[in-house]
Predict the structure.
Amino acid sequence: MNRKGSTFKLNLKISNMETRSNNRFRNDSGSEGSSGRHFSSQLMQLFEDELRDIYWAEKALTKAIPKMVKNATSEELIRTLQNHLTQTEDHVTRVEQVFEIIDQKPKAEKCEAMNGLIEEGEEIIKDCEEGAMRDAGIISAAQKIEHYEIATYGTLRQFAETLNLPDAVSLLEQTLREEKAADEELTSVAVSEVNMQAVNY
Ligand code: FE
Ligand code: ZN
Ligand code: FE
């Protein structure tokens, strides 16, 4: 099916949910955009909810990644994590810019999924002996986090496209690319040194 077709299907699905009492799909809260954008659509409502979720997640990661750095041993892993910490600070800023594009104040809403992933990472750190084993554990936790972000930014970018918000598309696209690159870099750190060392412990 082509992209237009699947977009239509998505809109249809959302309007079928309209009768549910869940206020996530309420119809009365959006403001009308001056440029003919669908500022009050249900898709916009979902877009905003998803933005608040990733805003919370990115801010939480600016605190979680330094803990991973502190517990890592491999210099390559430390460098990769520190580099992604800097990027994560940019991700927070970009989400704020997307809020601005849709005339909304940046608002964070606790992301239970990211909270769980971060907590799991902390448990792994506790349960693993310092060194290659803990490094391998940190990489596995960090990659689960990256995959969650990749899924979220992929969805957000698609929503922004459908909502005709080209500036938001390019901001979200930029972050999506960095999340994918971070994931690949973590894989290469694992393959190139950490896992081999952990297997020899
Ligand atoms: Fe992120
Ligand atoms: Zn990010
Ligand atoms: Fe990330």
